[in-house]
UniProtKB/TrEMBL annotation:
<protein>
    <submittedName>
        <fullName>NAD(P)-binding domain-containing protein</fullName>
    </submittedName>
</protein>
<dbReference type="InterPro" id="IPR028939">
    <property type="entry name" value="P5C_Rdtase_cat_N"/>
</dbReference>
<keyword id="KW-0560">Oxidoreductase</keyword>
<dbReference type="Pfam" id="PF03807">
    <property type="entry name" value="F420_oxidored"/>
</dbReference>
<dbReference type="InterPro" id="IPR051267">
    <property type="entry name" value="STEAP_metalloreductase"/>
</dbReference>
<feature type="domain" description="Pyrroline-5-carboxylate reductase catalytic N-terminal">
    <location>
        <begin position="3"/>
        <end position="83"/>
    </location>
</feature>
<dbReference type="InterPro" id="IPR036291">
    <property type="entry name" value="NAD(P)-bd_dom_sf"/>
</dbReference>
<dbReference type="GO" id="GO:0016491">
    <property type="term" value="F:oxidoreductase activity"/>
</dbReference>
Amino acid sequence: MNIAIIGKGKVGSALGAKFAAACHAVVYGSRTPDALAGTSNQADAVRAADVIITAIPGTAVIPTLEAIGEDVLADKIVLDVSAAMTADWALVHPNDSVARQVQARFPRARVVKSLNTMNYSVMVDPLTSLSQATVFVSGDSQDAKGTVNELLADLGWLPEMILDLGGVDTAKGTEHLAPLFLSTFTALQTMRFNFTVSRDSNERSVA
Ligand SMILES: NC(=O)c1ccc[n+]([C@@H]2O[C@H](COP(=O)([O-])OP(=O)(O)OC[C@H]3O[C@@H](n4cnc5c(N)ncnc54)[C@H](OP(=O)(O)O)[C@@H]3O)[C@@H](O)[C@H]2O)c1
C-alpha cells in the first residue's frame, strides 16, 4: 500500500517505521521538506498515496488538507490520528470532532479516526506488557475501515482488540477522551497505558 504520512514527529515516525517494516511504501510530507530528513512537500507526498495519515496537530489538519487540495484527496483514505487541544489542554471542539469536520469539508475523501486514544509507543506496540488493549475505529466507509483494520494488524493489533464504533460522528467520543488521557497520565506518571473496553462475556441484557 502507498502510505503518505503528513508530519514526521513522534507519531508519524513511529507509524512510518512500522508500516515500512511491513513492506508498505511510506512517504512523509512536511511543511519544510528536507531530502536528508526523508520528507517531501506535503502535496507531492500525498499524490500517489492510497492512505494519508494526519500526524499533525488537530487544529492544523483542515488547513493542511485544504492546501493539498480537494481533488488530490478524492477517493483516498484519510486516517486521522490527531488530537485538537488548546495550549492549556482544553478541547478545541467540545461539541464536535476533527474527523467529522474533515469528512464534511472533503466529502470525496474517506475519513477514518483511529489510534488517537493512546500514546504513540502503544500505537505500534499494543501487545507488550499491556494486559488488555482496545483501539477504536470510526468512519462512514466500511471499505476504508477494512483497510485501516489491515494497517492496525500490521501494527500488532489483534482483531478482537479493534472496536468499530460506527460512523465518523462517533469520533467525537474518542477525541473527547483526550482530557481523561492527560489526567490518567498525571495519575500514573507513565504513557504506557491504554483505554480498554471490557465486555461481559455472559451477554446478559441489562434494562
Ligand atoms: N504523541 C502521541 O503519543 C500522540 C498520541 C495520540 C495522538 N497524537 C496526536 O497526533 C498528532 C501528532 O502528534 P506528535 O506527537 O507526532 O506531534 P509532534 O511530534 O509535535 O509532530 C507533529 C508534526 O506536525 C507537523 N506540524 C506541527 N505544527 C504544524 C502546523 N501548524 N501545520 C502543519 N503541520 C504541523 C510538524 O511537521 P513539519 O514541521 O515537518 O511540517 C511535526 O513534525 C497530534 O495531533 C497529536 O495530538 C499524539
